[in-house]
Amino acid sequence: MNKKKDILSLDEFGVEQISELLVQTDSFAEILKRDVKKVPALRGKTIINLFFEYSTRTKVSFELAAKRLSADLINFNASSSSLNKGESEIDTIQTINSMKNDLIIIRHGDSGYINYFAKNVAVPIVNAGDGKHEHPTQALLDLYTIYKNFESLTGLKIAIVGDILNSRVARSNIKLFGKMGMDVTVVAPSMLMPENFAGFNTKFANNIDEVIGDIDVLYMLRMQFERQERKYYPSLKEYNRFLSLNLARFNSMKKNSIVMHPGPVNRGIEISGEVMDIKISNTDKIKINTQVSNGVAVRMALLYYALS
Ligand code: CP
């Protein structure tokens, strides 16, 4: 029997396999440029989008990806489900799983919950973000965005700035970027860093000005207020002083460098309103909307991988 192809993190994917996924994404991105943006690759397959946490980008992007591949996609809405009548989450997932689908996409607020669940169902599970743990499809769309912007990934200097402690995006990206040969610096004050930081194998700075003039990619993280059990930073003023991207810092970046953010952005915290307002007109440098666009093609490649 074939092993089912879960996508829980990108740890189990080697460099060659990641490179193949990037090339596969290119072919799906070409399809998305056509008038008819649909291929029959997953016709007859049924996919469930099971989100227990809020989402705009990931949820819509998976729905579009499935539909572009001709799969049937069912959106589960936690707020209107029998969870509100007292059914547990594990029973809810098992109920959904009993309805003979081919793949389940899950977002959940608890770190590691999706791995536990994946062991107990027969169909492939795709992690759409679990707690502070992993966000593998975000990491791959971020890598793809960088790959499309530079001639080579090897040696590219990337700074990941902000709330490392609470960020699943940071965890998945640090591992993936390092695996692909990029030179990663983490920029955060010690109170926004996890205790096991040494295991990350990156460089470290605690002020954005230490790196901004030298890097190829500035990756700003969202402050994860929903995961912060207490106040981790003294004040917004202090955060802006040491860690935010404002117009002066933006203008001091190297030619051909780019700015990224997984979204949603807290305007005025990690990125100033002024910089956000030029992101539509300055797509060469600010890649936040490009990341979202690339997410559809990347998720098409991942769904195709998991179901083919
Ligand atoms: N980047 C990201 O996961 O965004 P959503 O929470 O909107 O899906």
Describe the structure in your own words:
This protein is α/β, with parallel strands linked by helices and 308 residues long. It folds into two domains: 10-134 and 292-307, Aspartate/ornithine carbamoyltransferase (Rossmann fold, 3-Layer(aba) Sandwich); 150-286, 3-Layer(aba) Sandwich (Rossmann fold), CATH 3.40.50.1370. It is 34% helix and 14% strand. The chain is built from ten helices and nine strands. It has helices at 15-31, 57-68, 89-97, 113-118, 136-147, 168-179, 236-242, 247-251, 273-277, 288-307, and strands at 46-51, 72-77, 103-108, 125-130, 157-161, 183-187, 203-205, 217-220, 258-260. A five-stranded parallel β-sheet has the order 7-6-5-8-9, covered by helices on one side. A four-stranded parallel β-sheet has the order 2-1-3-4, with helices on both faces. α4 (113-118) links the parallel β3 (103-108) and β4 (125-130). α2 packs across α10 and α5 crosses α6 (168-179). 40% of the residues are buried. Phosphoric acid mono(formamide)ester (CP) binds at residues 55-58, 129, 138, 262-264.
